[in-house]
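To: structure desk
From: M.T.
Subject: fold request, one chain
Message: Could you run this one when you get a chance? Sequence is below, nothing fancy, just the single chain.
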Amino acid sequence: MNVKIFVSHRIDLDAELIDNPIYVPVRCGAVYDQRKGVTMQGDDTGDSISQKRMSFCEFTVQYWAWKNARADYMGLCHYRRYLSFAEHRSQKVNAHNMMEVPMLTERVKRRFGLMDAARMEQEIEQYDAVVPEPAPVERIPTYTGAQAHTVRQLWEAHAGIFVDRHSVDLLLKLIERMKPEYAQSARRYFEGDRHIGYNCYVMKAELFNRLCDFQF
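Reply: Done. Structure tokens follow.
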């Protein structure tokens, strides 16, 4: 089996790389990168939407991978957010169910199992998909200070900051019209009290293709 997790890297700062063939670093919004002599793969080759970086964020890297790469398992993560493949789950997590460390040092990489490609493949190939553990909405702080009890309320608490206040209703209407087979699941998610975020995952290529078809 072949596993590739594409790591979205910003072009305005340098970030630690992981020496593991599973991770494929890609510059996000590379069409805007003015630096000389950069060797890291950009999201601006082949079929791409690199120019949409300011509104699509790391999804420009996901789109590039969808159109220009192949593997049995495909994934996405960030230069500062990774799925943990540690043998033992850490009990120290923040409100988002994430384990925070100040720096991605070599010791940290090994601690969270990010350097062992063989073990990662063995773990991943047991499942159709690996995604972040959901976080209880009530524990997640909001920019407005409002207490959220559902995913919808969490989104609405960020209206005018990250999203428009009509975003959820518009999204649900679009899903109903364009991908009705997902409408019930989408409504159930927004009515629920567990948040799954940060666009970090790895899944079978068939599911990745379905995800991208839905999103793009």
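Reply (cont.): The chain has a mean pLDDT of 95. Let me know if you need anything else for the meeting.
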